[in-house]
Each structure stands twice: as structure tokens, then as C-alpha cells.
Amino acid sequence: MKELKLKYGCNPNQLPARIYMKDGAELPVTVLNGRPGYINFLDALNSWQLVKELKEATGLPAAASFKHVSPAGAAVASPLDDKMKKVYHLEGYELSPLASAYARARGADRMSSFGDFTALSDVCDVATAKVLQHEVSDGVIAPGYEPEALEILKTKKKGNYNVIQIDPDYVPALMETKEVFGVTFEQRRNQDPITEDCLNNIPTNNKTLTPEAKRDLLIALITLKYTQSNSVCYVKDGQTIGVGAGQQSRVHCTRLAGDKADKWWLRQSPQALNLPFKPDTPKPVRDNTIDVYLSDDYEDVLADGIWQTLFMEKPEPMTREERKAWIAKNTNVALGSDAFFPFGDNIERAHRSGVVYVAQAGGSIRDDQVIATANKYKMVMCMTGRRLFHH
Prior knowledge:
Elements: E1 3-5, E2 18-20, E3 29-33, H1 38-58, E4 62-67, E5 70-76, H2 82-87, H3 97-107, H4 110-113, E6 116-120, H5 126-133, E7 137-142, H6 147-153, E8 162-166, E9 175-180, E10 183-188, H7 211-225, E11 231-236, E12 239-245, H8 250-266, H9 270-273, H10 283-293, H11 298-303, H12 307-310, H13 320-327, E13 333-337, H14 345-352, E14 355-360, H15 367-376, E15 380-383
Parallel strand pairs: 6-7, 7-8, 13-14, 14-15
Antiparallel strand pairs: 1-2, 3-8, 4-5, 4-6, 9-10, 11-12, 11-13
Helix pairs in contact: 1-7, 3-5, 5-6, 8-14
């Protein structure tokens, strides 16, 4: 197929809309089910690039959960213990490596992943399809699908779930173009690979990078390569735990992503894990309620009596002091930035969320101040020399 007409563009009033190849070649994608839209394809093609590069960099199956052209989460395969299965609502599931990657990508920021578009680096197996089956999701892109997995996915959204297959061998042209207000922009595609060589320049006193830290820093940098800028990404245990995308101020990215990382960690606290939900409470409602429970607003919600519709009994709030104490237990977190940190305040905020390893471009006139702040907390900081802006 050389052209695919779309229902509409970004908004229903933007008609006509289509995707096609300028050179008249065949499209590298095939729609196996559903009718993906304009934004669906933007998410699909950006997220596919991310997981493909993660797989190439780590050798592990990878997955991403995308919303509005930025990742809500990304991860490589790593087993989930019983505790993390409970955190991600996957008790009783048998998870393949690919399924574990998607579970981690989806579990990074479950509120933002609601209605996501999924990307898988490998052929979608039955275990992964079963995880997707019970999530609120708009669609999936992968290099292939096992027959039974495809049949499972076709049952979603009353048979309208978007399933896209991409040619894994497709390589786009070196030069890429886009139009804005009738003006055509052209640039060389950002195809330079992100490898461990990016982590060789370490100006901090602490220069010890564990294999796990190198993996997590690579995940952070590759995720940022496909995240709307400015962006900052926190990673732990092979998965993103907080992505701050599209902010005008870098410290706002760091705060936003750090707050998400804190919330991810707080969801693993005994108080959050043992909330007495009624058995029939849907997963999205549980996710939203847990986020409220872990905020300063929860006592106001309790006062309104809403707890009676959600819980079997009234739970005790988690105090601000208890939350702060639990967050302090998080450590060995990796942090990536798509450009240099202009001030040490970013490092101060990152430290509060357990960051020990940092990768940033470097090149600020205040690099010495940023390095000094990292030294204060005995962090390892890599200066990659690579800016990763994406728009």
C-alpha cells in the first residue's frame, strides 16, 4: 500500500488526512485491525524507533507506552517479582520477557498511560497480548504477531483495536522534512546511535558505573531521543520511572519527572499496596485513587465520604512525613537530560528522588557548579556531549 487515508488529522475538522510515501514507495506499515488515526501513527512511528533502538543498545526485548508523541514509559525485559506484579495489577499472570517489558513501560506512569499507544521491539506473543487485553489502550505496533496473540488483540474495543505491523528492516531516507505554516523544514535524521561510549567522560569525583547503571543511563538517553523537548528522564531497574516532557524550563522537567518517580516508588509502600479496595473496583479507578491517596488532597477526599464507594473500610491517610520517609529509601536511580543542566538546582531536586547516576550533554557556562553539586552528593555524572532535542 502506498497511501492510507485517515479518518481525520489531529482534530476532526482537519480533513482530508492521509499518510503516504513521497517517493511513491510502499508504506512500511500494515494495518491488521482497526483504523488508526493521525495521532496514532505519530505515536506508533516515534515509539517504534524508541524500542528498536533500545533493543539494539541492550540486546533485550523492549516496549514503550506513548501518549501524544512522548513516552509515558519505556522499559527493557526484566522479571517482575510478586510485589511488582501487585503494583502493576498483574497478579496471576505468566509474563514472557516481552510482556515484562511492556508491564514495566505501562507501570511507570499508569495515569499518563491510560489510552496509550504501545510499541514492541519483538513479535507480540500471547503473554504480551494478554497483558494488553486488559489495559485501556488505543493500539499497538510491532514487527509481527503470533496468530493467537493477534486474535486476542482483535477482541479489544469491540473489535476496533488498532494493530499495526511494521517492516523491521525498513530504513527511512537520511534527510527528513516537515511542513509548518506552509514552510518546509529539512534536516538530517537523528540516526546516530546511543552507546556506552556516550558515558566515557566522567568529570565527577565518583566515576564508578555499574553495569546496571550503564543500562539505565542508556535507557534514559534513548527515551529522551524520542521525547518532546525539553525533557528529563528518571530510570531504575531497566525502566523509566518518571518522564518530564515538553517543558520550557529544564528544572520544571526535573521536578515533573521527579514527582512521577516519587509516585512510582510510593505505590510500592505498604500503605498503598494494602489499600482495601472493593474487589470490583476497575484498574483505572484504582490507579487514580492511589495517586490521590498519595497526595496532600486525600484527607479532603476522605472527608467527602467518597471512600465508601471504593473501599471496604476507611484507610488511614499516609502522612506527608511518612511519604517523605518512604521516598528517602529509594536509591540507585539514573537520570538523563536531553541537554545540559544550566544550574545545580536540577541536581538538588534529582537527589531527593534517589538519583546517583546522571547523564547530560554538558556545555553550560556553569558546568563547574553542576559538577560541584553532583560531587556534594557523591553522584556519578557523565557528560555525553550529545544534545537530544526532539520536536
